[in-house]
Write a structure and sequence with these properties.
It is built from 15 helices and eleven strands. By secondary structure, the protein is α/β, with parallel strands linked by helices. Helix 1 packs across helix 14, helix 8 crosses helix 12 and helix 10 packs across helix 13.
Length: about 325
């Protein structure tokens, strides 16, 4: 690993999950420049990249919307040591997603890029397609989301979206649970309101059904002291993330099991509190944005993977031409 590698990080403003502090952690490392791009700059990505002069860097790490980068492949192919950090790559395999199959095509067009994915099951599916992704799980912003030890007056709650077709299984699960248990379905409009609401919830119902990986809300709710009741994602993610059913998280495989465990936790509040405390300690030790930033820097400073033969020859020819040979 080289501490002297010059790294350019391209982030995005108005991100669904605010990475302000994560970008600050990255920017705090030596030889790392972080540029947070506005929507207009991302829309004109080819022009934006030309202005940033990325050729002066050893690695370029992208944390940009897939919907925009997928349209800029020719420009991305020229970036040195490209690293793509992608939190939505699971949509490549979701039948209801408009991006089904699109991520795979995109990555094949960038064969020398280092892929950084967020789920172990998802990464395994890409490995079966011939890719060699790195894995950095999702996490939470410890500066914004934490346990305030407030009164938890919402016994069972969910915060999130359900309108998209991608979330059809989520909505079915929520409706099934709501038919048997009193469930507060909530939305929040700011990070402060989100933190305050999570701190009011005793049992947080996570409904990431059919996605194959754990979304950030699981880590965020655990960090805020909720007892998280989450959809079991298949075993690999649980093992690698250290999620242990009824110890630091509560896992279900179908609505019937979810309802049964919710009733058990309501009947045994001390058990729910122990699980919540263990879950909070677990995510605080491994999944903060500072941890994510450090993992990304480690990847960026690791030896670059060997280029594909075709692209390697082209790169060497360009280097010789620049050198006047």
């Amino acid at each position: 690993m080289s501490e002297h590698n010059k790294i350019l990080v391209l982030g995005q403003q108005d991100r669904d999950i605010d990475f302000t502090h994560l970008y600050a952690y990255l920017d705090g490392h030596d030889n790392v420049d972080v540029k947070v791009l506005a929507k207009a700059e991302i829309k004109q990505l080819k022009k934006t990249l030309a202005k940033l002069r990325p050729s002066g860097y050893d690695r370029v790490l992208l944390d940009l919307p897939f919907s925009k980068t997928v349209k800029a492949v020719p420009s991305l192919q020229k970036l040195p040591g490209l690293i793509i950090f992608e939190e939505d790559a699971c949509q490549n395999f979701l039948a209801a997603s408009k991006w089904r199959g699109a991520f795979e095509k995109y990555y094949r067009a960038l064969p020398d890029a280092t892929l950084v994915l967020c789920g172990y099951n998802t990464a395994s599916r890409y490995q079966s397609l011939g890719f060699k992704p790195e894995i950095v799980p999702k996490g939470f912003d410890a500066q914004s989301l934490f346990n305030t030890n407030s009164n938890r007056d919402i016994k069972l709650g969910f915060i999130g979206r359900t309108q998209s077709n991608v979330y059809s299984e989520r909505l079915e699960l929520l409706n099934a649970v709501a038919s048997q248990c009193e469930l507060a379905k909530l939305r929040t409009s700011s990070i402060d309101e989100y933190r305050e609401t999570l701190n009011r919830i005793e049992l947080f119902l996570s409904a990431d059904v059919g996605l194959g990986e754990y979304m950030a809300k699981n880590f965020e709710a655990m960090a805020c002291g909720c007892t998280v009741v989450a959809s079991h994602q298949g075993g690999l993610d649980e093992e690698q993330l250290g999620f242990v059913d009824m110890e630091n998280i509560v896992l279900y495989k179908d609505p019937v099991e979810a309802i049964a465990k919710i009733r058990l936790l309501k009947a045994e509040p001390e058990l729910a509190k122990r699980i919540a405390a263990a879950g909070q300690a677990h995510v605080e030790s491994r999944f903060s944005h500072k941890h994510i930033a450090n993992q990304l820097i480690k990847i960026a400073r690791s030896p670059r993977p060997a280029m594909t033969q075709k692209h390697g020859v082209i790169r060497r020819v360009i280097q010789r031409l620049r050198g006047g040979l």
